[in-house]
Design brief:
Length: 123
């Protein structure tokens, strides 16, 4: 099942359409996206703990990482926020995206959460 935000994605050749927005509850899901469209993965994060979300791997032939952007509310020190990964569907096919929440300097033994999504890119 897809969670769709109110954001729209401008495209010179097509009308604006909602950008697919995946949340933590969408872990393990399969989504269908049109070729050329973008989709977002938003995950909760509190970087003050040292644990941050990072891309573990993805199928570069079919999708590309467009941006990674943290969003933290102005609040007391230690307040959490979220991180956003925006991907674009490059060409028709099947892609896997795997993210991990870890302390980079401690290596893979420090992974505390994983997020995976299967993407079917439609022509």
């Amino acid at each position: 099942m897809q969670s769709v935000s109110d954001d729209t994605e401008p495209n010179q050749n097509r009308e604006s359409r909602p950008m697919t927005n995946l949340l933590e509850k969408d872990n393990g899901r399969t989504i269908d996206v049109p070729e050329g469209s973008s989709f977002r993965i938003e995950l909760p994060e509190n970087a003050t703990t040292g644990y941050q979300w990072a891309v573990d791997r993805f199928s570069e032939e079919f999708v590309e990482l467009v941006s990674t952007e943290p969003h933290y509310a102005s609040g007391p020190p230690g307040s959490g926020g979220k991180v956003e990964f925006v991907f674009r569907a490059k060409k028709a096919g099947s892609a896997e995206i795997a993210l991990k929440q870890w302390r980079q300097w401690e290596g893979d033994a420090s992974v505390i959460h994983r997020f995976n999504v299967h993407v079917n890119v439609r022509p």
